[in-house]
Amino acid sequence: MKVMTGAFTGTGAALNVDTVGFKPGKVELLNRTGLVSAHWTTEMGDGAAFKNINHDTAQNAFVTTGGITARASGFSVGTDADLNTAAELVYWVAYETGLTE
């Protein structure tokens, strides 16, 4: 299994992270500024994510749009306001295979 890490600065508009080098089966986002984490697997479908806001279990949410979508050499992050906020630093971890493989 391949694993790659990196970071991006949020834009508020959909953005592509094509520096991974493979199509991920799982992606984790850690928004350092906004204190949000998100997880996505291929089984969730395009644009989805499970997010945890401020690491408070009362603020968990599963989104079906504006989240994460795998791409041939990376992934895209949609316009979800917690995952991709302008000027916020977001770390990512991408895994080549999904959880069920």
Walkthrough of the structure:
β5 and β6 form a beta hairpin. The protein has one domain (3-95). Strands 1-8-3-4-5-6-7-2 form an eight-stranded antiparallel sheet, with no helix packed on it. The chain is built from no helices and eight strands. Helices cover 0% and strands 50% of the residues. The model has no long low-confidence stretch (mean pLDDT 92). It is mostly beta strands.
Q: Helix fraction?
A: under 10%
Number of beta strands = 8
Number of individual domains:
1
Radius of gyration from the alpha-carbon trace, in angstroms: 12 Å
Shape: globular
Main beta sheet: strand number and arrangement?
8 strands, antiparallel
Average pLDDT, rounded to a whole number, is 92
Terminus-to-terminus distance: 10 Å
Quaternary status of these chains?
single chain
Strand content is over 45%
State the order of secondary-structure elements, H for helix, E for strand: EEEEEEEE
Question: Which sequence of strands runs across the widest sheet?
Answer: 1-8-3-4-5-6-7-2
The structure class reads: mainly beta
Low-confidence stretches: none
SSE inventory with pairings:
Layout: E1 3-9, E2 15-17, E3 26-31, E4 36-41, E5 48-53, E6 60-71, E7 74-77, E8 89-95
Antiparallel strand pairs: 1-8, 2-7, 3-4, 3-8, 4-5, 5-6, 6-7
Supply database-style keywords.
globular, mainly beta, 0% helix, 101 residues, eight-stranded antiparallel β-sheet, 50% strand
Compact overview of the structure:
With 101 residues, this protein is mostly beta strands.
